[in-house]
Design a protein that fits this description.
Blueprint (H helix, E strand, L loop, with lengths): L17 H14 L1 H15 L8 H21 L4 H25 L7 H6 L4 H17 L2 H11 L10 H25 L3 H15 L20 H14 L5 H25 L3 H4 L1
Helix pairs in contact: 1-6, 2-6, 3-4, 4-6, 4-7, 4-8, 4-9, 4-10, 6-8, 8-10, 8-11, 10-11
């Protein structure tokens, strides 16, 4: 009776082929995105289990914030409410998506430590799961933008289509952020609190509630703020009829830098994540 021969693996510790294994992880996670999508849907159902309206609570709270802040800050900034509301609703929804994604990215590896230790899944799958989970959550608030636009009679026109490549760039940044912060916070648990403080400060330094023109001549320095450029990728086409070329170039530059750092970190330390979580 013949027995099937098991494959023999030869691993050279001096040449671990980190690059090849990292690329295989990325390829496996991206091609198997359906698993990450299913897990993200499961996360959302478990999070709002027993809730009456589920994730639409986020939509209602955002609507209340838009109404309250719109009435108050339109008077403080002496701006017409019909002009200010499209800016505010788009800014708040996009910023909430960015902030939630960054906060969730800090725990996207440690929250699934049992899976990482027991199953041989690509780490990219966990990053995509985090991205899809936040995308599904924010999708429930997107109709609020259309409602406000209809109420005030603001329509972006053909320029609004530029928001689609902006969303694609945000998606790439979200995956890179999940991989980088997920691994970094698995090694240094204090980083999550630092990130939360940075995001809180960035909210006030970024024109979310206030408009860029309030800075006057100093508004030309806003592209140095990476959060402003990411926000403007979607808000510009929907509210301002497009977006400046400088903002798009700055956003692409920041995205390329983030992707390069995340990829380098992923290649170098991917094999250690199971020991860190």
């Amino acid at each position: 009776m013949q027995h099937a021969a098991l494959p023999t693996y030869r691993i050279d510790a001096s040449q671990p082929d980190r690059h090849g294994r990292a690329m295989a992880d990325l390829t496996g996670g991206l091609t198997g995105w359906r698993l990450a999508w299913a897990l993200a849907q499961l996360d959302l159902r478990n999070r709002y289990r027993g809730s009456v309206i589920g994730p639409f609570w986020v939509t209602l709270s955002t609507a209340a914030m838009v109404g309250g802040l719109g009435l108050l800050y339109s008077q403080l900034f002496r701006m017409d409410l019909a002009t200010y509301l499209p800016h505010l609703v788009t800014s708040l929804i996009v910023w909430n998506a960015l902030a939630a994604m960054v906060a969730d990215a800090t725990t996207c590896m440690t929250s699934v430590e049992g899976v990482i230790r027991q199953l041989r899944l690509p780490l990219t799958t966990h990053a995509l799961r985090c991205v899809f989970r936040n995308a599904l959550n924010v999708a429930h608030s997107v109709p609020l933008i259309l409602i406000v636009f209809a109420l005030v009679g603001h329509w972006p026109g053909a320029a609004g289509l530029l928001a689609l490549p902006g969303l694609a760039i945000l998606g790439v940044n979200a995956v890179a952020t999940a991989l980088f912060l997920g691994m970094l916070c698995a090694r240094f648990r204090d980083i999550g609190q630092i990130v939360a403080n940075v995001m809180q400060m960035a909210f006030f330094l970024t024109p979310v509630i206030w408009k860029p023109e309030l800075l006057g001549e100093k508004a030309k320095w806003l592209p140095l703020n990476p959060f402003y450029t990411m926000l403007e990728l979607v808000r510009g086409p929907l509210v301002e009829g497009g977006g400046s070329l400088l903002v798009w170039l700055a956003a692409l530059g920041y995205s390329a830098a983030l992707a390069a750092v995340a990829l380098a970190f992923f290649i170098r330390f991917r094999n250690r994540v199971a020991f860190w979580v």
